[in-house]
Amino acid sequence: MFDSLYTIRKNLDSRSITMVEVVRHYLQQIDAQNHILNAFLEVYPEEALAQAAQIDQKLEAGTAGKLAGLVMGLKDVIAYKNHKLTASSRILGDFRSQISATVVEKLLAEDAIIIGRQNCDEFAMGSSSENSAFGAVHNAADTSRVSGGSSGGSAVSVQSGMCLAALGSDTGGSVRQPASFCGVVGMKPTYGRVSRHGLIAYGSSFDVIGILTKKVQDSALILEVMAGKDDFDATVSSLPVPPYSKLLEMQKQPKIAYFGNILESKSLNADVRNAIMGKIDFLKQQGFTVEAIDFPYLDYFLPTYYILTTAEASTNLSRYDGIRYGYRSSNFTDLESLYKHSRSEAFGDEVKRRILLGTFVLSASYFDAYFTKAQKVRRLIQQKTNEILTKYDFILSPTSPSTAFKIGEKASDPIEMYLADIFSVQANLAGIPAITVPCGQDQNGMPIGLQIMNQHFAETELLAFAKYLNGE
Ligand code: GLN
């Protein structure tokens, strides 16, 4: 019953379970597993139980919201009023948020319950959730392996049944890659579909709030509630939000493309290749048109992504100065040394690396050589991606080139770690929506993910196809 909101809600409506019992179930799961998995940084038992008791009354009165029954977690970059918010970094110290993110307010208004705050890579920078100041997250399928990242705590919480759904952030794959490492569904909406008011900024022209669930159906319902216009975020589109959860049947046989040059390449992990090729063969047998195409700019995805996001991050993270938030060094002589010591002591290595890189690419002598050029390449990648999506309905690929690796295995090699994002960054560079659904396992039993991308604001079709592929 605890795999989908639909079944939980059915049981609530027929009174075979109460909301208080549902919350108790998740609290027990957290008690039993979190000390091993390290997915939640903080849990809110009393509040969750109090909210549950109120929702039970609303269920009785027939006034419960669309999301009654949903118990969810928030990645530690999404603001929840009067709760701690740290981006898994020491620099925010004991900072408590004075506001809730717009998405959080919308979910609460429909009676979702937030049960806790979830561990992640510091400031969402990473692909393994090892960059947290509060220890690595462990994959529930094999606790010696990483969860993926940066929304690792969110993915593992859903994977292990410590909550039903979670919100993460996706700048270059941080919802989809951990979802694929943990065998759950991870959805990144179109850039501008969802408000980011209350999301700690990393790369502002890339950042999107995404959803992790076991079922595509649940993602559709959550997106329907949280998407749409917001006076606090001018980047949100005013396009109307379709009732995604009611539009989950495919309307036509889609035409599908995949990048032949990567999928057929021998350098891709063989189990990943076989799983994705197996799915493609299956689709062909079902009568779908699935064609291999070439993408000319593949080698530019990661350099473009890392130049632009580090540049944006270096600007966004300048506000953590030791004065305004949380941590302040006690070791200083003047204002400048207060800034320097606070930042040097409280930021982790990966965050420092990116601030340095970003400051470098924005410096006067290198601005045109790196930043301006990367902006132009980004435009080419966007144009080419859009061109493909006028001929095809979807682009299929693996979500990540490998499955979950061992904790510590790639920690000393940033380039190797950045390669984990090779398939996921395209959707953020182009601003299009993308979703990952589970697609079998490798020979060690670790989950593999299949990624689907499509046109801007075409989430309805994306979710319908994903539901089909997820066998729902
Ligand atoms: N792994 C990528 C990075 O480190 C993606 C992060 C994200 O999407 N937040 O930048």
Backbone CA Rg: 21 Å
Order of helices and strands: HHEHEHEEEHEHEEHEHHEHHHHEHHEEH
Describe the main β-sheet briefly: 11 strands, mixed
CATH superfamily membership of the domain at 5-246:
Amidase signature (AS) domain
| CATH architecture group name of the domain at 5-246 | Alpha-Beta Complex
Q: Return the CATH class of the domain at 5-246.
A: Alpha Beta
Helix coverage percent: 25-40%
Decide which structural class fits the backbone.
alpha/beta
Strand order in the sheet with the most strands: 1-3-2-6-8-7-12-13-11-9-10
Molecular structure report:
The chain has 472 residues and is α/β, with parallel strands linked by helices. It is 40% helix and 14% strand. It is built from 16 helices and 13 strands. A hairpin with a 2-residue loop joins strand 4 and strand 5. The radius of gyration is 21 Å and the shape is globular. Bound molecules: glutamine. Residues 124-127, 150, 169-174, 202, 309, 421 line the site of glutamine.
